[in-house]
Amino acid sequence: MMQPLLRSQLKTVTFAFIAFFIAVVLLMYPEQAFRSSIRGLSIWWDVVFPALLPFFITAEMMMGFGVVHFMGVLLEPLMRPLFRVPGAGGFVMAVGLISGNPMGAKLTSRLREQGLISREEGERLVSFTSTAGPLFIFGAVAVGFFESTSVGIILALAHYLGAFAVGFLMRFHEPKAPPSKPPVKKTGFILLRALRAMHRARLQDSRTLGQLIGQAVTSAVQTLLLIGGFIMMFSVLTHLVNYVGITTLFNRGIAHVLEFFSFPASLSEAITAGIFEITLGSQLASAASPAIPLMFKLTIVSLVIGFNGLSIHAQVASMISRTDIRYAPYFVARLLHALISSALTVLLYPLLQKHLHHMPAAVSVFHPLQTPLWTGLEWTSITILVLSCIFILCERMRHRSVS
Which residues are in coiled coils (predicted)? Predict the structure, then answer.
């Protein structure tokens, strides 16, 4: 086996060579770098910043008000048996499903910093809560690229079912690791116990409303500046790597794999681009030859969205670097999510194809009165309400059996 010192030296040389190579390419093609950087800045300022800032601020405030502890008590009977994470992970899952990447990683890091989850539980949690948001799937991909909301249903079902499947599989990650301490079991109505836990957490936080709002805004803006830097950097790298022609070798290798599974080899460019950035990969897949069946295009898009792209990988790695949560389990989970989502797309497309043609070709995702699809917020609210009713019934049945 390679000695640790030699391995560390090789890593240093490799990283230094990559950084030097990027610097040389930037100097050789300054105009291309500038244009791609402007494109990344435009995506961040026009889409990412206004879309994520309200979620970041609201999530910070909810954590200060003790909502995490409320959902921790309420969802403990669901999250721990299914995913081997505390009930507080339900808060991360709900917000992550609504807002999309990289909210799941940010909130997981916060829970770990507050000691509400262990390292292994954080690795499980971030693996299945780092999902694409409904606005991206239905708005950018379905309506923007494919000009049809109907394909968004297939992509969303495959993506979110794949995320839950990954969460269940990741429960076997580090099986011997000790779990975090569950909330103290107390008698009484579960909803009242959750409210008491939320009240205690708010008192322990002890920040005034003004301090909480100010710190929430500051933290949200700092995080979004970090995300903006990653988006611009990977926008430049993706364009330059493709412009120089480095991706040609990757395209050939991926094309052989696609041909092995009877997929068109021309979709290899979409996969290569999606490895770096999911928006570009999804756009290339949708713009592929009209002769390619739609099922193949959607499968590639599900593969790309499930992997998340190296741009989001870098954002997640940066956010969890403040804790002891490791990046490797997240990377493995992204590979699993990509494979499971693409397989689910192949299975779901024949089942839903005949029902989706009756839907309108395109609708506005920004006006809820004009779209027949419920938003992620509505679905999450209904889910939480149903789960609460189930827990209430379980509690009442338990008390009756005891009495």
Answer: none
C-alpha distance from residue 186 to each of 189, 236, 397 (Å): 9, 55, 16
- Give the position of tokens 């959902």: 71
Distance CA 395, CA 385 (A): 15
Residues in the chain: 403
Chain-centroid distance of CA 181 in Å reads 26
Buried residues in 327-343 as b, exposed as e (16+ CB within 10 A): eebbbbbbebbbbbbbb
Q: What is the pLDDT along the chain (403 residues), one digit of tens a residue?
A: 556 777 777 878 888 888 888 888 888 888 888 888 888 888 788 777 887 788 788 888 888 888 887 877 888 888 888 899 988 888 888 888 887 888 889 889 988 998 889 999 999 999 999 898 887 888 778 888 888 878 889 999 999 999 999 999 999 998 888 888 776 666 667 788 888 888 888 888 778 888 888 888 998 898 888 888 888 888 888 788 777 777 787 888 899 989 888 899 889 988 988 888 888 888 888 888 888 999 999 999 999 999 988 889 988 998 899 899 999 999 999 999 999 999 999 999 988 877 665 444 444 443 333 333 334 444 444 444 444 554 555 555 545 544 4
Report the Cα 286 to chain-centroid distance in Å: 21
Cβ(94)–Cβ(384) below 8 Å: yes
* pTM of the predicted model as reported, rounded to 2 decimal places: 0.78
Q: List the Cα angle 168/173/174 in 5-degree steps.
A: 145
Q: Which of 194, 182, 203, 192 is nearest to 65 (CA)?
A: 203
Cis ω on the peptide bond leading into residue 102 (within 30° of 0)?
Answer: yes
